[in-house]
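Protocol step 4 of 6.
Sequence for SAM-dependent methyltransferase (Pleomorphomonas diazotrophica) entered exactly as in the expression construct, tag removed. Do not edit the line below.
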Amino acid sequence: MYEILSDFLLRPAPFSVSTTELLWTDPHIAGEMLRFHLDGENDLASRRATTIDGFVAWLDRRFPLAGLAVTDLGCGPGLYTSRYAERGGMVTGLDFSASSLTHARKAAEGAGLSIDYRQADYLRDDLPGGQDLATMIYGDFCAMAPDRRSRVLGKIKAALKPNGVFVFDVFSTGMFDELHEETLFQPRLMNGFWAAGDYIGFKMTQLYRDEAISLERYLIVTPDRTFQIHNWMQYYTPDIITAEVLAAGYSAVEIVDFATGGPWPGGATAFAVIARP
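Step 5 output, C-alpha cells:
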C-alpha cells in the first residue's frame, strides 16, 4: 500500500495517464455518471436543463436544424441529441457508454424521435460523413491530450460538408484561476459514487499553472480492488483555442457565449467555439 500511496502523491506529466474509459465502462460508476447526467438541477456531469435549452435555442437560430445532418460526439444519454431531433435535425449520437446509450434509445423511442445512436469511440472509430453540423459539449475537448485533440479536429473536419460547422465548448482560463490545489480522503468519498460497497477514497487536485491544466486524481481502495482515476482539463483563452483550431486546417473560428450565442463576456465561464472547415 505504501507504494500505491507514494505513486498517488507524485505529479505526473500532463495527460500522461488516461482513465476516461473507466468512468463509462465500470458498471457502478457508469450508473452514477448517468444519474448525475439526468439530474437537470446541477452541473456535475452535464449542464442544467435550462442552460442546455438556451444553447440549443441559439444554435437553431444560427444554423436552423430542420433537415440538417447533425452528429453529437459524446452524446451521453441524449440530452442534446433529443433536442436537435425535436427541432427537425437528422441526428446521430456517438458515445462509448452502453448504459447512457440504452437510456438515450429508450427516451427517443418514448418521445417518437428518430435518432441513430451508435456505441463508438470518436477517437478510434469512423465518424458519419456528410455532416452539416457536429457538436461536442461540456468540455469533452478540454479533457483530451493535445495529440488527441488534433486527431479529433482532423476527423471532424473530414466528416463535415464544405459549408458545415463544428460547434464545441471549452473551459476558460478564468475558470482555471478559481481553482486551488487540495488533498483529501474519506470513507465512501462522494457518497458512494465510486463503488457500491465500502471503500476509502483519496482525491488530489493538482494545478499546472504554466500550461493552464488541472488534474483531479482519485485513488479508490475497496476490500477487493484498488484503482485510480485521472481527470485532466485544459483551459483556454479565445486566442489560444483559435490558433489550435486554425492549425488543424479550419478556415474560420468564432467565439461566442455558450448559453446565449452572443458575445462572450469573459470571466470564469465556458465559451463556445464555432469552427468552419
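Step 6, annotate. The longest strand covers residues 160-172.
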